[in-house]
Design brief:
With about 700 residues, the protein is an alpha+beta fold. It is globular, with a radius of gyration of 26 Å.
Amino acid sequence: MSKLKVGIDIGGTFTDLVFLDEKGNRYYGKTLTTYPDPSNGFLNGLEQCIQKYGFKYEDISSIVHGTTLVINALIERKGVKTALITTKGFRDQLEIGTESRYDLYDLFLEKPEPLVPRFLRYTVTERLLSNGDVLTELDEEEVKTVFEELKNQQVEAVAVCLLHSYKNSVHEKKIREIAAVVAPDMIISISSEVSPEIREYQRTSTTVANVYVKPLVEKYLRRLEKKLQIKGFAGKFHMMLSGGGTCTIDTACQYPIRILESGPVGGAMNAVFYSELSDISNLLVFDMGGTTAKASMVDRGKALVTNEFEVARSHRFAKGSGIPVKVPVIEMIEIGAGGGSIAYVDELGLLKVGPESASSQPGPACYGQGGKNPTVTDADLVLGYLNPDYFLGGEMKLDKEAAIMAIEEKVAKPLGISVVEAAWGIHRMVNENMASAARIHTVEKGKEIANYSMFATGGAGPVHASNVATILDLKEVIFPAGAGVASAFGFLSSPISFDFVRSYHSQLTSIDWNYVMNILNEMESEGETLLLESGIKKDVTEIVRTCEMRYVGQSHEISVPIPNGELNENSLENMKKSFEEKYEELYSESNNSFAIETLNWRVVVKGPEPKISLHYSLAAAEAKISAKGEREVYYGEYNHYHVTPVYRLSDFRNGHVIEGPAIIEDVESTLVVSPGFKVTADPFGNLMIKKKGLKGGIQSDEQLQKDYV
């Protein structure tokens, strides 16, 4: 047996698995996520696939894992008892924040409660100047007294965030040394290591969030690691990072905040892989699972990354209403619209869908596990989009009558409409919500949505993709092979990488280039050392530098690429030009009369892209593909049920073409092809869905031979 690579993604409803062998063959698995311990679903799914496909644990060379454990713990406040130590006079920074209001006119505005209550926030005597010089030495006896009090309070974890420690970490490190003696069992995170950059509130918030979940993550990952070793797994076990790379388990345990969105980013990384594979540079990634839907963008073959993120928002769509964290995250917008999103009629008699989800327990009504509330999955089943006898390839039967009863009781009767009208209303509303969110996301990034093709992934994404594309007036939808477990495959296409940041605030014309080179070299050396520990040599590493810059007087900066190698006064014009080009791309025009300043300098050090050679067939299909059957499916275009051919995805070969309406069933997901679309299969098992009459999108056989043979 050839060596296997495995990607495992734990979502809110399902746990997805992808096995990839050295010949490019892919094997998929999907099982319900287990609560309260999701590691059981991880191990159950792995065992099921090993038994199903005849593998052995010894055959697995690497496992890459993504999970929502961190973000769920923050949202649900299920971390450990945590304290904060900060500079005297800054005890309340977690509540003061930036003093901004996310809604100026809401008199009852609520912000999320800090993860650390006020009685567990302690201050110590010390002070650093903004340049890092020590103004007041640390009072070490006071620190010892604080830790004695923390032991009395039975605190498990402590975040240390002192003023200006991003410039000089001496006092934070000293506090950690004292803790190792006075309170050796306490988990400590210091901001100069977790988030060494300017902006006190965000740095403190990030450090607190990191240590708040650190014991949970370490316990979870070490337990998994041990259980895998007992079963015979001796390969590498890595975690997916929120920024699109992967890291070792040791790094994830030390900085769990970096795996905050490790699950959802897999769909975007799958799209990056497909973008290169099929030479389609701009993709709007539409990833709809059982609990939520996410929209992200691949622009010119690269996923867009931000260094600011919010969790636990008081209002789901209100920016500024959550807890800020400063870590690299692939930019995405989340919509409370998954297959398990619950539909209901509100106090005003209006139909609403989500954000509350039925999750995997008890799940949608049609799961037959005690769920009584109608969900998006129930509506899709009633409309004929899902096959009750072929859900998860027939491993899980759906109860259509239960779905009908739930929709009738909770939606149809209160609104005075039929069950079919209610089901179509649920389906249409969730599509409109997702389309609106996707449109807003692209506009905020200064992009024209018409220039993008939709990339549909997730268990529910392909069911809704063509209708969402119609609302957005997109002409093309891509349905990748294994779309229902696409995030898990995205993990396998991501390189090992590490992100570093240092703050250096200076006008561009006054930069101390020696200082800049020192901090850049320091970050690059640290990254290369970590990669070497992961078995990656320096000569195959890639270094990507960026600098966050802005016009003097602005309060927000933009990320600008800067060249590798030596930087000096001769680099000034190139950096200015790069900033102005990026600024014009985002805001249409720049202003040469304004001075430019730098704030944060970032370095990404990463290993080579994983070599994935997919099994493919260049031979054109000789026979016309045949449907395996047909069923009645409801389409808004017809305003009634329509007898529709049903195909197996596994029957498609390179060059096969069918026209909508059609249903294409895969084990992990179902593709609904609306009227007016045409489907073409490519050599890798992917389907391209286009508006009829349009050309392009699939590479020629000659180009494929050139690229992959």
